[in-house]
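Workshop exercise sheet. Pairs work together: one partner reads the sequence aloud, the other fills in the structure field after running the prediction. Swap roles for the next sheet.
Pair: D.N. / O.F.
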Amino acid sequence: MPTFTVFKGSKDGSIKKTQITKPDLQGDQVFLKVTASGLCGTDLHYRSTDMALGHEGIGVVEETGPLVNHLKRGDRVGWGYNHDADGVCLECLEGRDTYCPNRKFYGEADLDQGSFATHAVWREAFLFRVPENIPDDLAAPLLCGGATVFNAIYGNGVEPEQTVGVIGVGGLGHLAIEFASKMGCEVIVFSGTDSKKEEAQKLGAKEFHATKGAKEIKTDKKVDHLIVTTSFMPEWSLFLPILAPRATIYPLTVAEGDFSIPHMPMILNGTRIQGTVVAPRNVMVKMFDFASRNNVRPMINKFPMTEQGITEAMEALNEGKMRYRGVLVP
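Structure field:
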C-alpha cells in the first residue's frame, strides 16, 4: 500500500502538506514518482478547495499493477486533466474520451491525489510517454496548456495556409503562437500593450497589435481562427470586423458567468463559437510527437515543490508575473 505526500488546497487558500495511502495496485494502475508538475490557472480555482492540487504531471514509473502491459519501471510518463473514462461509450469509441459521460476530470474525481505531490497512482491507459528530447520541466506544461491549444488547432482542422489570431500572450497564448506558427499558419497576436511584442515575434507571430485604448484594429489578413486565452472576454467590437467569413472563435480560458457576443455580426458573417477542452488521448500523443519534432517548448519559471514554493508560484500567476508557465520541481 503506497504512502506518499500530496499538497492540498484549503478553505482559506493556504497550501497544506499531507500524506495519503493508496490501496495495493490493481488492474492497470501504475505507481509513479513525480519529477515535475506544471501550474495551471485551473489550480487557482481549486486553491480554496479541500483537494489535492495539480494536473500537469511528469513522473517515473516505480511499480506496476498486474494488468500493466506497456510500461515498466524507469519509464518517463505524464498525465493531464482527464484521469479515466468508461471506454465503451460512443465518445470514447470515436476517440473523444474527454467528452465521456463517465470521465474523471481534475477537480471532479480522484480528489485525494494530484501532480503537486511526491508520488501518484494512475491508470496506464491515461499515461503518456514523454519524448526523450523534452526535459521533465518543459514537458509538464504541455500536458494541459499545450494540449488545450493544440487540440483547438489540430482538433478543429486548422490548415497551414490559414490565419490564426491569438488574444493574450500568457500561459496558453504563448504556446498557441508557437504551435500555430510551426504548423505553418500565419499568426497574428493581440495583447494589451507592446510589452510582449518581442517575445511574441520570437515565438512565431507575424503581426502584433496592442489593443489597450484602441478604437479599431487593422490586420494585413482576415483572421480565420481566433483563439481567446485571456481571463476576460475581448471587446468584440474590435475583433469581429477582422474575422474572415465563417471564422471560428475558440474561448479557451475557464471562466464563470455567461459568454456574450453581438448577435447580428455573428450571424451575418457565419462566425462559429467552438467550445473545446484539453486534448483526448489520441491527440495528446500527437501533440507530444509534434512538439518533439518541431521544438515546441514552453517558457517557464521554476519553483520548489514545497508549501512555500507552491504558494509563491500561485501568487506569481495570480498577479500576472509568470513568464509564462510555472513549474514545480522536487
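Discussion prompt: The chain has a mean pLDDT of 97. What would you look at next?
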